[in-house]
Design a protein that fits this description.
8-stranded antiparallel beta barrel; 188 residues
Amino acid sequence: MFRVLIVLAVFSLSGCGGGSSSSSESPTTEITNSGSTIIDGTWQADCLVAGSRLKDIRWNFNDGEFSRTTESLIGGCGSDITSTTTSNGTYILGSEVTMSSGVIANKLDLTYQNEDNTQSTILDVAYINNDEIYFGIENEDDSCEGEHYEEERTEMIIENNLIIGTETITRCYARPVSVNFDLPYVQL
């Protein structure tokens, strides 16, 4: 039996381990690493394979607020849109951090406003090179200690190529230590 992770994330803010994703830094919209520009603007990745669907994902950052719009596509790239979902919240672009590759990115805290009027903060990084922005690769943290956040995810339980059930699990994540250079978002 193996489990397939569905990237259906219901975010819940961490309460374990003494870490917290809150920050006393004042919001800023300027990234200071070399080869970068400000984060404010619209950034889009087209025709991504996410789950079993093709999607266009668009981020809009503006003066401490963000929206993330995901458009599911029917058929191939550039085809009709079957559904659109949008998430909104606030962001804080923080200090520089050196990634495992040596690239210098900036801490990025994304606080989502959930449908139940709660908030959850995701710890990420942002690296801008010319007209492309890159975010971090998830960094699962089994210890749930230090600065981290928690997410509830639904996993499918598959046996003999059949889905026999699902299970909701909670996982802890620390801020990414690597930038996902395989997924550029181009500035529009």
